[in-house]
Amino acid sequence: MPALDDANLGEIVVSEADLKARIAALGHQITEDYAGRAPLLVGVLKGAFVFMSDLARAIDLPVEFDFMAVSSYGSATKTSGVVRIVKDLDIDLSGRHVILVEDIVDSGLTLSYLRKNLKARNPASLEVCALLVREGRQKRSPTLKYVGFTIPPAFVIGYGLDVAERYRNLPYVCIWGGAES
Ligand code: 5GP
User: Fewer CB atoms inside 10 A, N or C side of the chain?
Assistant: First the structure.
């Protein structure tokens, strides 16, 4: 656990209490929208695993899980939009009601690649649930059915989001106060 006086921890952007309340509301909404169905939650590793775990437990339906891991070319803090699938799904998506669970949408390039890729596998439906959307960074406004929070344009860590694999276990989202990587 990082020390609370860690100089890399900047201002809190989304508190633990706000995460809890918003995720409960998202879970409730998904429960209503998917009544009578068993949605398949597809998490994008690694960042989405913390959010997906809490979100799934806020959904009162028989949900199923799968994960994919992608790596994007570019620096640690900037995406190039060229995405490589590092771990593919185990489950066949055809006929499934898929909810793609993302940690953060920045430029939206990763999401747009994933959406196209998953759509090609013929799911019955495909929606996106993103915990965070960074304000003003997407060229075209993406159609995101479920969004947790819109955040200002600073690099953030915590609640699944890392810098060099650290800080994913912070129970809140805060601004990265360290050096640009
Ligand atoms: P996009 O393709 O939308 O520009 O970038 C999305 C991906 O970049 C996210 O899934 C995440 O892995 C990474 N990313 C974008 N912004 C942040 C941030 O503020 N903090 C962290 N830790 N990762 C980010």
Answer: N
